[in-house]
Each structure stands twice: as C-alpha cells, then as structure tokens.
Amino acid sequence: MSKRPAQVASTSQLPQSGQRSGFTGRALIVGVMLIPLNVYWIVQMERARQTAWPTAYGLFFNAVFVLLLLQILNWGLRRLRPAIAFSQAELLLIYSMVCIGSAVAGIDFVQSLMPLFTYPFWMASPENKWDEILNPHMPKWLTVQDPAVTRGFYEGGVSFYQPDIVSAWLGPVLMWCGFIMALMLVMVCINVLLRRRWLTEEHLACPLISLPVEISSPRSTLFTQKLFWLGFGLVAALEIWNSFAFLYPNLPEIRLAPTDLAESLRARPWSAIGWMPITFYPFLIGIGYLMPTDFLFSCWFFYFFWKAQFIVSDAFGLFGADQTSSFPFAPFQAVGAYLLFAIYSAWLARRYLAQLYQAIVAVPAGLGDEQEALSYRLAALGIIGGLAGLIWFSMAMGMRFWVSGAVFLIYYILAVAITRMRAQFGTPVHDLHHTGPEVILTSLFGSQSFPKKDLIGIGILYWFNRAYRTHPMPHQMEAMSMQERVSPTSKGVVLATMLATLVGAIASFWCFLHIYYDVGAAAEGGRFNVDTFAKLQSWLTVPQGPRWATMPAIGAGLVFAFFLQTMRMRYVSWAFHPLGYAVSGSWQMNLVWMPLFIAWVLKAAIIRFGGHKMYRRLMPTFLGFILADFVVISILNIVSIALQIPCYRFVD
Q: In this structure, are residues 637 and 45 in contact, taking their beta carbons and an 8 Å threshold?
C-alpha cells in the first residue's frame, strides 16, 4: 500500500494541461441527453432481457462504446468544422457523466431499490405473515402500498402514464431521489478532499481510465497500430463466432463462459470448495494487463488461499453452508483487510490530513485549493450537510441516531477503501457481497439487540449495501483524474457528477416503471434482488444474539493484512499484497480469477523476457482485447433489443 504502482503505459503521449476545460454547456447538454438513452439500454440488458451486465465490472462497456461513437463523430467534425469539434476534456466529461448515470442505474443501486417500493405488500401471504410483522412498519412515504397500483406493476398490460398511478409513485420516487443525491454528494466531497493526496502527491495511476483516455485523445496512435488491430480482430472474430453458435446450435461454441471445476469434487472435505468456475473473458485479460503484477498475482493466489480455508474448515467440521455465518468467516476477514487498508492509508496521509484540516478552518498554513473542483471548506460543509440529510432520513424511518450514524460510517469507510483500491490498482471487481453495515451490525450486536424500527430501517437501507460492484465513488475519482490529465482544471466535475446523478436516478425510475407496467415485473425478465425481505423476516421472527466469532474474524483479517503489508515494506520482492487478500474473498472473484491468472502469466513473462519496453509495445494488443469485446457485445445487444431477438451472453 505504500509502494507507488507503476504508471500505466499508454500507446500515445497523453495531452498535457493547457487544453480547454471539459466543463462546457454543450458537454453538459450532450451528457444529459445521453444518460436516459443509456439507462434504458442498461435496464433492457440487465433486467428486462438479462443478456449482459455492464455495471457488474469496474469498466462499463456501455460507457466505453458511447465514448467511441462520440469520438468517431468528432473525427468527422474535426475534418469538416474543426472549430466546433469537442475537446478531449469535453469527451471525457461526457463519458464520466454516462458512467455516473450507469452506476446509479446499475445492478447494485437503483435496480436493488425497486422491489422495496412494492414487493412486501404484493407478496404478503398468511404463510409469511408480512402483513402482521413487516408491512405495518414500512414507511408509507417511501413505498407504494395501494393494491390497485401495484397490480399493474407486477402483471403489466397497463399504461404507467395514468394520473392515479403517477401520483402514487411520485412522492416516494422524489424522496428516494433526494436520498441518492445526498448519498452521492458526500462521496464526491470526500473525493475532492482526497484527490490532491492520491492523484497529485502519490500519483495513483487509475488504470481503468487508460482506454477512455486513449480513445478520446486527438493525438492517439492506438487505431493506427497493427498490434491493436491484431488483438481487436482476434477477439471480435471469437465473439462473433460464438454469437452465431448461439443462434445456430449446430456450430461449435468456443466456450468462454463459466465451467465449474468443482462439479467433480463431490466427496468431503473437497466439496466445501464450492463454486470454482473457469472463464476466459478477453476484456478481463486486457484489464489485468493494466494492473500491477504483484496485485495480479495476489488476486489469484489468495483466491486459492480462501478455497483452502474452506476445505480445511470442513475437514475439521467447522464449515457450514453459509460462508458468511460459518467458519472461516471469509467476508469478515475481508472486511478486516479493508479496514487495515483504510487505517494505513490514513496514517500515511496524516500530515496531509492535518494540512487539510488547517485549510478547512482557514489557518494560513493550510493547503491551497485553487485547482480543486470545490474549495476544501465547501467540500467539508457538503459532507456535513449530506450526512445530516442521510441521518435525518434514516431517523424519519424510525432508526435511532447512533444506528443510522453507524450504518453510514461503515458504508463510507468501505467506499473510500474501494475507491482507493480502484485508483491504485484498477481492479475490475470489488463486490464485497453481503458484508455491508447490516451484516456487520447484526453480527456484532445481534439482531435481538435492535428494536423493530432499527431493524426495519437497516433492512430498507440494505439496497445500496447488498454488494458494491456498481459503486459510484470510484467513477467520481476517475472523472477527476481524467480531467486533471487533459484539462487545466477539474472545476465543474462536482456539478457534472451531481447533474448526472439526478438525471440518472430519474431516468432509472422512469425506465423501470415504463417497462414493468408494460410487461409486468412478475414476468421472467423482471426478477428482483429480494434478499432484503428474507433478512428482515429472519431478524423479526427469529431474533439472534451476537455472533462473537465474527469479531475475531475481522481482527484476524486485519492482523493478517498488517503482516502482509509489513513484509512488503521490509522485502522489496514480497509478492503477496494485502489488498489481493481482501478482494479475492468476494463472490465475483470466482468469475475473474482465471482471466487475471492468464494476464499475470502473460505480463510476467513479457516483462521478464522483453522488459518494460516490450510491455509498453504490446499494450495496444490488450487494449484491443478490451475494446473488441465491448464493441461486439454492445452492437449485438442493440440489435437484439431493436429486433426483439435472443442475444449471446458474453459474460455472466
């Protein structure tokens, strides 16, 4: 964590400061116009048709495809009317707005919020007794409880645009839009305070911005290089072939999707290994090539380390079906590692934080904030105001002050750790499934320690804590990093971010309501993440005491991560990274460990036998891997939506 990662090699010299600012009226207008179209596309792919999940990985393929289309249009403008062509900073600001809008509409954000409006009322039955134990305590101002309104939502076949239906949804939707705006305001203000330390002083590379910066650069040589077209052509041909094999089953498929290695491991303790798929996704191999070698190695190494823990635990009779609530408590170990990362990062930045405090309270020795998107004092006020709004919102639901404060404290600690990890290493996954505030609090204190209103409130706030694949905060920091590289100032990024958040939230709600009142949320394509209500039912009907073993698990994760970091500080050749240990314990690493392993083998061999010069020379090939996957799957999904035909799924 203290070592500075190597800057990501680029195929062209990045434009220097001195370009005009990306914060222009026309860039904002184009971004606002694109967000609803993009959100509709995401909802169609991820929910209505379930053919692709662009927001499940750190680099959103839909946003990259939109940027590529804008750059193609811009090439034409440069030839015909150079004076009106978009600058690189403008293109990247539009790209960032599309990313933020995508994150809001994503699989772990508004998509997880939608069932909260209606599901417990629609699914209440004498068996689950939700009308007795749950529904009377659900806030009316945040939900839609009228059966006449919810019937059309689940059964479809009616128009959403009826006055009684619109009025029933308007109030709750506006309240949740306000909540989302406050949640995002705190994130972007934290990023403003941390940007200088991370991007200017530590020079964190933000590897996932490499491809967008290359695509948008007017001086990029990427598209003129044979190695790029070699990588692009190979992957495009592979994906096109597989799409034909999907449509015509007589053709053999070149399988890239998961094949479970654990299917043959039926006997105990080997069966405890669980799901262990192998995948060969080219875009993930390309992203892995951008990541630091030691972190790449640690990701796949510690993936096997976790599997070994499961096997050993089962051999001693300690392993249960639920890895969250049974030994070795993998999610809690991962939380401990993330906590160590946050503590250590704060310790390294202690002098900067002291100067930041001085700047906020207007002591002359403080940092200057002339180049920041907001003044430090205004950012601090934004954090205070945003948190006050979030806590007020939670207390209005019935939660106690300290419980709501604890929920958001845990959330933002994890958010900062995820953002730092993305900025430093460019990891494509950081899902942390089922390790959010609700799990930590009910495990440490026991569900029986909380009054019913606290449990209801914690359950309601579960929608943005279920997993963090779609987390918006890293995209905000990457937006600042891109503007810093190509523009004289990052001013305007905060406003663009908040505007994209508002438009993305409104567009997301509209898309879901428009589609579900048409086809019905109960249809096959309308499946929801409804973990919230199973958790609530369990907490309310079978209260449990603290799970004391989870605290040693968090401590063990923290101590082990501290050991790994200490060894990294002492031995330059130490290859085991504490954050590789943290991120590899999450569910989504199952899908990416093999591509990252392949990327590590290729990158390590290239650097060993060809040096960094060869590594930089071959960079276009791996960028071609990424872009080919993104372009082909984007076109296939657009065609399938337009023609209402099945679509090949290139990733799960």
A: yes
Cα of first residue to Cα of last residue in the chain, in angstroms, is: 31
Residues 476 and 471: their CA atoms lie apart, in Å, by: 10
pTM: 0.93
Return d(Cα 558, Cα 570) in angstroms, integer: 18
Q: Report the alpha-carbon distance of residue 352 to residue 481 in Å, rounded.
A: 19
Phi-psi region of 398 (alpha: psi -120 to 50; beta: other; left: phi over 0): left
Determine the Cα–Cα distance for residues 473 and 3; give it in Å rounded to an integer: 23
* DSSP string computed for 83-149: GGSPPHHHHHHHHHHHHHHHHHHSTTTHHHHHHHHHHHHHS--TTTTHHHHTGGGS-GGGS---HHH
The residues near 380 (Cβ < 8 Å, ≥ 6 apart) are 189, 193, 360
Question: For the purposes of burial, counting CB atoms within 10 Å of the CB of 311, is it exposed (0-12), middle (13-18) or buried (19 or more)?
Answer: middle
Burial of residue 368 (CB within 10 Å: 0-12, 13-18, 19+) is exposed
67-118 pLDDT, tens digit each: 999 999 999 999 999 889 999 999 999 999 999 999 999 999 999 999 999 9
- Dihedral through CA 484, CA 423, CA 623, CA 76, nearest 10? -30
Q: 455-509: per-residue pLDDT in tens?
A: 999 999 999 999 999 999 999 999 999 998 888 777 889 999 999 999 999 999 9
Domain boundaries, the chain: 25-643
Distance (Å, whole) CA 215 – CA 72: 10
From the centroid of its chain, how far is CA 168? 31
> Cα 149 to chain center, whole Å?
32
What are the residues facing 259 on neighbouring strands? 278
Q: Residue 278 forms beta bridges with which residues?
A: 259
Nearest to 380 by CA among 354, 409, 359: 359
How big is the CA angle at 66 (ends 30 and 621), to the nearest 5 degrees?
145
CA 220 to the chain's CA centroid: 28
Q: Which single residue is written with the structure tokens 């405890």?
A: 272
